[in-house]
Design goal:
The structure is a homodimer. By secondary structure, chain A is α/β, with parallel strands linked by helices. Helices cover about 45% and strands about 20% of the residues of chain A. Chain A has two domains: about 170 residues, Rossmann fold (3-Layer(aba) Sandwich); about 130 residues, Orthogonal Bundle (N-(1-d-carboxylethyl)-l-norvaline Dehydrogenase, domain 2), CATH 1.10.1040.10.
């Protein structure tokens, strides 16, 4: 097992709080950067209701500023992708010479943003496949699934082993990804159709998408476009591996069929009037598809619609 | 020239008022069924500001109910397509044994609805290509273009000649369509991309669509899908004629490039919270494409989005 590590969770929303909480539960020294929930967590701790077992951190270490935490062994960055421009400022105070960073965010091209200012060797991507929402301040509801797929930005197997070891004692199921880029595209096979159609449809839950034959078909065709773009992107990066489209698409439907009336994170953002992760989740995959000459008609139109839905002031407002 | 005809305008919004007004100006006996503007027109007449010459009908014949008008030679039905279920009730009191009906509405399959209850021989389609909006009550602003393409539901050339003669003395430019079905699909080449993207984009004017390279491309690809579906539909109806896609698409862009910041009717409906003509303009073309095995990925997604935008209560409402 790994010795206890010093960890900073940057962006302690539902996802960051849950996974950081699981690392604390496993004995690591976890510091949470909190904004909205700071007072509540200081007063009552962090309370997690989880399908994998409830737990409470009665007195977690919370900070209002990254400077209070200082350098750590690991940064778990669980910011929204819409905050990517703030990430460097928020993460940098926690980064020392040997700090590694796990980018636990949705979308494409985010690890590269971190690598731009602190090099690629210390950057990992984490892909959480989970149904998880915030509850009252200081409360997290973990509803279903929960595995994280971890990859290293340079696909270095020894670095990946180090990241896997971090989670070894935790209750989180971790899958190592030999190709981070492939894992990112595979995750988009879920996010693009389900986060997208939920919002494009004006606010529908995942059961409506998989339960309507026409919508299910649109979802599948969107996935096929994502697979085609992803495989072209992998080839352009000289990676030998490819996405097995049929296997991934079947798995995504199987997982989603079991989800019930789930509200993807983007739908919650939309409903609550917050900015949605359109750039990293839709526009960046589309830009890559276009640059690579991959025809992606549904993704093009969906991205346009998501951009429009992301405007806070529609004509009816 | 044709002798003065007795005409009932059913649905005297901007389009019905303008074209009915031009028929009255040409000497016909025109009766307007009015709801919103009844009092204003009774008090101050019908005032039209038009690029083809302003005019005022100082004392037009207006009615609140079709029964007041009784049978006529011609019905000019300019209802919104969203009111198609009311059309029979509103039009029937004006229909005698020799009455002909011009369906001056947007979308596909509407003439067939009239034919269902009074036979196809008397049914014509009118396609107005014009930029026209309502102003204050009793006022119409005719901004640009204005030609009507007329076709007969059974493509009977003698019947078509009778309809053309009706407009001979008017200032309206009339084009005869040897194939009404082809004309309907050609009109959709404008309505689908421009009415659609204006609303899907959250409320953008046509200049934004033609002026953005990506959006212009989406518009073109939508038109290509409409052309493909239209040609399959023409073939399925054993019509010898086909849409010349490149010619129609070029013309649509040329016309739209000159429009400036035009707000398509559907965008105005959307902005004002009224039901949009989604079924006749999007869903019916899509149903035909699907039934004919024509791949229409952008139309599929756009129709889904338009359906969602047509729901009065989104999650932000």
């Amino acid at each position: 097992m790994t010795s206890p590590q010093r960890i900073a969770v940057i962006g302690a929303g539902a996802v960051g709080s849950y996974y950081g909480g699981r690392l604390a539960e496993a004995g690591h020294d976890v510091h949470f950067l909190m904004r909205r929930d700071y007072e509540a967590v200081r007063a009552r701790g962090l309370r997690v209701a989880s399908v994998d077992g409830d737990f409470v951190l009665t007195n977690p270490t919370v900070a209002r500023a990254s400077e209070e935490m200082g350098p750590v062994d690991w940064v778990l960055c669980a910011l929204k992708a819409t905050s990517i421009d703030e990430a460097e400022r928020l993460v940098r105070p926690c980064v020392g010479p040997n700090t590694r960073i796990i980018v636990l965010m949705n979308g494409l091209g985010l690890e590269e943003r971190f690598a731009d200012w602190c090099g690629p060797a210390r950057i990992f991507g984490g892909l959480a496949f989970t149904c998880i929402n915030r509850g009252d301040p200081g409360e997290v509801h973990h509803l279903r699934y929960g595995a994280i797929t971890l990859g290293h930005l340079q696909d270095d197997p020894r670095e990946l082993d180090a990241a896997l070891a971090l989670w070894a004692e935790s209750k989180v199921q971790i899958n190592g990804a030999p190709s981070l880029l492939r894992a990112r595209w595979e995750k988009l096979c879920w996010n693009v159709p389900f986060n997208g159609l939920a919002v494009a449809g004006g606010g529908i839950t995942t059961d409506k998408i998989v339960g309507d034959p026409d919508l299910r078909d649109v979802a599948r065709l969107l996935m096929e476009e994502v697979v085609a773009a992803g495989n072209a992107d992998l080839a352009a990066h000289s990676e030998a591996t490819r996405i097995d489209g049929e296997a991934v698409i079947s798995r995504m439907f199987e997982l989603t069929d079991a989800m019930g009336a789930y509200r993807p994170s983007t739908l919650i953002d939309f409903t609550e009037g917050r900015p949605m992760e359109v750039d990293a989740m839709f526009a960046e995959p589309l830009r890559r598809a276009q640059a690579l000459g991959v025809d992606a008609p549904r993704l093009t139109l969906l991205t346009f619609v998501m951009d429009a839905r992301n405007q806070p002031l529609g004509p009816r407002a």
